[in-house]
Amino acid sequence: MYVAKRRDLGRLQDEIQDLIDELWAVPRFSGLRHGFRPQVDCLLAGDPPELSVVVELAGVDPDDVHLYADDEVLVIVGERRRPDSPGRYQQMEIEYGPFQRRIALPERVDPSAARAEYARGLLTITLPVAEKVPPTGKVSIAVGRRP
User: From the CB of residue 64, how many other CB atoms can be counted at a distance below 10 Å?
Assistant: First the structure.
């Protein structure tokens, strides 16, 4: 019971932080905004069950992405770098810069068995759902590339 309440409180804190970040962000059209917030989908499926987290990272070098997880949270940190281009921009809509997403996981997972794969601009992180896993420290997840 205590663990469930703690996880719910953690999720609520993450949602409040995301809301504050969005409310105080400079509007995209102003040209003053730096960085971007990649879009994320989470899917629970399979037998045995796995949690798949898909992150839209078009234009991001997988070497610039770092993943960390424990049994309750996945952290995605990276940067989309603006390419060096001679000339003057006539229009700027693509967001570049550093990013960080903190995903509260809906199920307890085994981060030591996690895997990540980058293909066609999408990063897919697969985290096996664990029935009973003792709490672990933060685990780094390597990003593999698929042609």
Answer: 15
Does some domain include residue 60?
yes
Instruction: Measure the CA–CA gap between 140 and 49, rounded to whole angstroms.
Output: 21
Residue 89 inside a domain? The answer is no
Tell me, what CATH number does 28's domain have? 2.60.40.790
- Domain total in the chain: 1
> Helices then strands (H, E): number in the chain?
1, 9
Residue type, 5: K
Write down the pLDDT at residue 5: 63
pLDDT confidence bin for 31, thresholds 50/70/90: very low
pLDDT for the residue numbered 6: 64
